């Protein structure tokens, strides 16, 4: 009994320390970013869980500012890649160059590209050509780069936070499903409310630069990730998460009616992995050492919205992908 009590006390201490660290991150980000609390929490969740994030929003809502501020708060090496149609894969990953060594001999040397950082901002990622976008596939999934038959492993932690503009489509190349699937979350940054817009104007009148201070570092993030991985998930909740992801496939007999009516194709197994992994982090952020149904439900939209494709019936009925996800969640709960 004493051993159990000691173990429980240790868990409580670690959960409390985890929550305090998250509170410090939120407080510092609030110095640079007005509102967007749900977006901030989901970005923090993905980073601790080790996932990549796709931020979608119209220009000026603070996508780039949020990522730059995160680099300061988390005290991580930060790099920004501005994706354009003329960007080449070697501009992202790096290239092999020929140079003289100390003995005067010509040798091949790998010159690392901007992807070799801990926090990478892929700005307007859908403006690059498919050839350059494909250079991100290996690094986003396996955290390594292969150039000239030689692999180079990136230091941990490593994250890609990409942005895209949903309105302007001229000169863009839609991300293929294989790349979309490598993002743990797709988050929609909405236009700020009038009161928030006032605060934004006031903030930027003082300075346009980020002012947040560092409160975490890479080592601490990895420790927080290790703690999150130890959070238990009971079989009933794991089964619910799996049924939720499976329920996005219209070809399965067990899928909800909304799926059969509105979904063209469903989410990959990565969605189930992502929702469970992120739910563990969210549980700790809310002061719990166990995953709840509420954690799974709260993450359904960011995990699934970029992994399922709607059919023409959904378009004709005016259904958004979030609408359909909500229907799938509601029907899955009833089973």
Amount of helix = 40-55%
How far from one another are the termini?
Answer: 38 Å
What's the CATH topology name of the largest domain? Answer: Rossmann fold
Number of domains: 2
Strand order of the largest sheet: 2-5-8-1-9
Arithmetic mean pLDDT: 84
Computed CA radius of gyration, to the nearest angstrom:
21 Å
The count of DSSP E runs of length 2 or more, i.e. the number of strands, is 11
SSE string, helix = H, strand = E?
HHEHEHEEEHHEEEHEHHHHEHHEHH
Fraction of residues in β-strands: 15-25%
**Broad CATH class of the largest domain:** Alpha Beta
Derived structural class: alpha/beta
CATH superfamily of the largest domain: P-loop containing nucleotide triphosphate hydrolases
Give the topology.
Layout: H1 2-29, H2 37-49, E1 52-56, H3 63-73, E2 78-82, H4 89-93, E3 94-100, E4 106-112, E5 119-123, H5 130-133, H6 135-142, E6 144-147, E7 150-153, E8 159-164, H7 177-180, E9 183-188, H8 194-206, H9 218-229, H10 235-246, H11 257-262, E10 263-265, H12 269-285, H13 293-304, E11 309-310, H14 312-316, H15 321-334
Parallel strand pairs: 1-8, 1-9, 2-5, 5-8
Antiparallel strand pairs: 3-4, 6-7, 10-11
Helix pairs in contact: 2-12, 10-12, 10-13, 12-13, 13-15
């Amino acid at each position: 009994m004493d051993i159990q009590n000691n173990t429980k006390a240790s868990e409580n201490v670690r959960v409390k320390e985890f929550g305090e660290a998250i509170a410090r991150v939120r407080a510092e980000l609030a110095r640079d970013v007005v509102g967007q609390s749900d977006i901030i929490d989901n970005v923090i969740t993905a980073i601790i869980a080790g996932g990549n994030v796709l931020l979608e929003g119209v220009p000026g809502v603070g996508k780039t500012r949020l990522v730059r501020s995160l680099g300061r708060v988390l005290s991580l090496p930060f790099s920004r890649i501005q994706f354009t149609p003329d960007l080449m894969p070697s501009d992202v990953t790096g290239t092999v160059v020929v140079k003289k060594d100390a003995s005067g001999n010509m040798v091949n040397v790998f010159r690392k590209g901007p992807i070799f950082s801990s926090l990478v901002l892929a700005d307007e990622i859908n403006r690059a050509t498919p050839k350059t976008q494909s250079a991100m596939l290996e690094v986003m999934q396996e955290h390594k780069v292969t150039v000239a038959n030689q692999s180079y492993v990136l230091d941990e932690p490593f994250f890609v936070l990409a942005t895209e503009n949903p309105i302007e489509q001229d000169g863009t190349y839609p991300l293929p499903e294989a790349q979309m699937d490598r993002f743990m979350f797709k988050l929609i940054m909405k236009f700020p409310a009038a009161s928030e817009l006032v605060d934004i104007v006031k903030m930027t009148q003082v300075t346009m630069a980020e002012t947040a201070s560092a409160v975490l570092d890479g080592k601490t993030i990895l420790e927080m990730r290790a703690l999150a991985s130890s959070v238990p998930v009971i079989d009933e909740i794991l089964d619910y998460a799996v049924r939720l992801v499976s329920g996005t496939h219209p070809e399965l007999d067990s899928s909800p009616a909304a799926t059969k009516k509105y979904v063209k194709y469903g989410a990959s197994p990565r969605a189930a992995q992502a929702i469970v992994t992120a739910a563990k982090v969210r549980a700790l952020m809310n002061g719990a050492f166990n995953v709840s149904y509420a954690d799974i439900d709260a993450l359904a939209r960011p995990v699934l919205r970029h992994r399922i494709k709607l059919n023409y019936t959904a378009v004709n009925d005016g259904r958004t992908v979030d609408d359909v996800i909500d229907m799938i969640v509601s029907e899955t709960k009833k089973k």
